[in-house]
What does this fold into?
Amino acid sequence: MLSPKVQTYLDRLGLFIIAIVVWELLSRTVVDPFWISSPYLVGSRLYELAVSGDLLWHTRATVWQALLGLALGLVVGVALGGLLTAFPRLARALDPFVMGFYSLPRIALAPLFILWFGIGLLSKVLMVFSLVVFIFLLNTMQGLKQVDRDLVDLMRSMRASRAFIARRVQLPSMVPWLVAAARISVGLALIGSVLGELLGANRGLGWYVEFSSGRLDTTGVFAGLVVLMVVAVAMNLAIDLLERYLSPVPSQS
It folds into this structure.
């Protein structure tokens, strides 16, 4: 009998194969490939891009922008979340402003980022940062609020330093919240990176999708989207591995 983990992988593989077969059949019998391309055409295009080196060139640009913005959002979001938790009066005063900026559609800021910072790396990184920083900030605040206050008071009664309490009590309690924030932010980071490329860039998967769309090249559009999906899945798998490392399941005797 197969283990649940192996069964899950087989189920996913089966769904993937079914989706590919249905897509290919639709492109051959029902819908003109001009509109939806086909797995064969997309695979051929990806092979051409890989051989020419363009696939790595575009993918590396998009992923690098997303990772830089994600890292910056993590550092700033956690720092601000810790600061606002330590000063609740300041947090209450800033709450409407934080939520106002959080709710602001980032696509409205994209032209300003291009105008202020050009079409280079900085504007893309800041676009990603603007999308993810509030996720980390809010999750950090919520995670710190969930810390066991009795345990913190116990540590203080034993004259533990703030750094020791943060390292031994608060940070471990925040891990699930930060992992959840990272899982949400991965998709947002790719969205921000691609959005910046759509508005102004000379490379990247978003640029390639826009370039293909302008040439009515449906196969190129789908090829770019497929690569973005693969990158998103890979990044989420990396988050899963990080979560297992930070929160190992205790062995059962």
